[in-house]
Amino acid sequence: MTAGDTAKTTQHGAQAGGSAYGNSPQAGSEQEREAIESGKGSGHRKGHVIPGFGLSMGITVTMLSILILIPLASILGYAFHLSPQTFWTVISQKAVLYAFRTSIVSSALAALINSVMGLILAWVLVRYDFPGRRILDGLIELPFALPTAVAGITLSKMYSDTGLIGAALAKIGIRVSYTHAGITLALVFIGIPFSVRAIQPVLEKLDPQFEEAAGILGASRMMTMRKVIVPELMPAVLTGFGLAFARGVGEYGSVIYISGNNVRQHTQVVSYVIMQKLNYTDYDSAAAIALVLLILSFLILLFLNIIQIRQAKRTGGGTSTVAFEGDMTSSFRKERESRGARRFLIAVSALFLILMLVLPLISVIRNSLAEGFSFYLASLRTETVLSALKVTLIATVIAVAVNTFFGIMASWLLTRFQFRGKQLLTTLIDIPFSISPVIAGLAFIMTFGRLGWAWPLIEKFNAHFGTDVRIVFAIPGVVLATIFVTFPFVSRELIPVLNAQGSDEEEAAALMGAKGFTIFRKITFPQMKWALLYGIILCAARALGEFGAVNALSKTRGETFTLPLEIDALYLSGSADSITAAFAVSSILVILAVIVLIIRNILEHRSGK
């Protein structure tokens, strides 16, 4: 997606060696690069023609530290206090090892499926023009906008032995819900955008002259694909695989319902085990398991950065695009594509998206109206649902405001200045994308809970001012968890757009004496306004549906529950009416997700124009 999608903007970096953040040789103006070269001996400071480096650096690093790094460091500090024997005893338990194996194997398999389907979907969306293409393209973002808890209960219901699809599969002896197949299915659902949006921008910018040359030299379409196209796309495919794998290993909301969490059948995932330890206040075990998962997440981030850096060196920082007279390349491609192959790939893509994305939406609406429209309205008017809606809106508004401010500061810093440690800083901003939301909740418990290092400070504050401030298991904890999981969303939308625009105009204004705010207001903001708006919308959609992190920090129904937690409580109550009510509440979030997708397409069209 152009100015408009988290996974795809993530991959604008991958397609040029990963630097959505402007560490490619093309980023910035010629003036800036010359200034940077001349200032290498003094820490690159001579390249800062545009004002605001110190302010943007200070705000970015401070917010990143307070909201992300310090809470995560609390987990590390707590885990390092455990004796080696205690640590090994925890992580070597059979149930824990099986949970890790289930999460890793299922995530790897789902990421592999998404890599194959992502390549097909990206190819169809980029190379073919057909009725409904924009609709298919818009559906790719649905897993970003749809709350994971809603996806979880919907897939569990659909693929149960009595469900819409599960009943048909059960007749031929195939069970999906409460099996490893169900876990993989849920992870395929949430990982689709990562793979597609990793490959799509690279394919769009792929230099067509090499394909034409291969065809002129007599290479078959298959050989051209294998020798020319696939090698160019492989870094993006690996990046999409890594992102989908990282998301899957720590996934919580979409898998806990369909997995069944059966110890004997080894369908527990590692995020569920951590949450279980938290519920039993077994913080030693939770911290030990979380530490292993954190290390795995950081290794995945390292893997992705190595791919991006190597691709940047190989391509010189970007993928060249050659402009041809008329539509020669398009005509050449069409001549080489058989009509049967085009129809087959379009049909496969449409069928995959219908099964994985459209049918779950239909299932939510169908189940929400199972008891009639009057019951549906009554389910939305209960005291607990209204309270959950209020808490959700509070957390969403604050999270969007905080992350919008951070996104603007971080994007200004990372696209308008060169400095040592830039790649490290961009990697740290990505941390919430790669770690489990449950770990985010645990991080704040280890920081502000009764065993956290900040607890004595909170107690002293309450004693001095006569207050009863609480972070954990209170609304502030819900807000912090929501900020954590949505932290990079706005910056991820702004950075590729600002990089594409370059900094020539800002530099010229700065050399003419314009102040930093004037430069931002007159030049930078008009360039990024559509990306900023879409980043805000995407951040809000993710905040509305957050489940795993807030589940760890919210325990009181009717007071600190959000809408996803209320859905969870209704669904787990077990009665038919409560399950229908859970789908009724879910339908509200589904409607919001669809609205987000519509706005996304409108904004993409406007930004394209």
Describe the protein.
With 609 residues, the protein is mainly alpha-helical. The protein has one domain: MetI-like fold (Orthogonal Bundle). It is 74% helix and 0% strand. It has 30 helices and no strands. Helix 17 crosses helix 30, helix 22 packs across helix 24 and helix 26 runs antiparallel to helix 27. The longest helix has 34 residues. The protein is globular and about 70 Å long. The N terminus is likely disordered.
Notable traits:
single chain, 609 residues, mainly alpha, MetI-like fold, 30 helices, 0% strand, globular
CATH class: Mainly Alpha
What name is given to the CATH topology?
MetI-like fold
- Enumerate how many helices there are, as a single number: 30
Low-confidence stretches: 1-47, 317-332
Q: How far do the termini sit from each other?
A: 14 Å
**Count of discrete structural domains:** 1
Mean pLDDT score, rounded?
83
Number of strands: 0
Secondary-structure-based class equals mainly alpha
What's the Cα radius of gyration? 25 Å
Indicate the percent of residues in helices: over 70%
User: What is the correct CATH architecture?
Assistant: Orthogonal Bundle
Principal-axis shape: globular
Question: CATH superfamily name?
Answer: MetI-like
Q: Give the SSE string.
A: HHHHHHHHHHHHHHHHHHHHHHHHHHHHHH
Q: Main β-sheet: number of strands, strand sense, barrel status?
A: none
Strand fraction band? under 5%
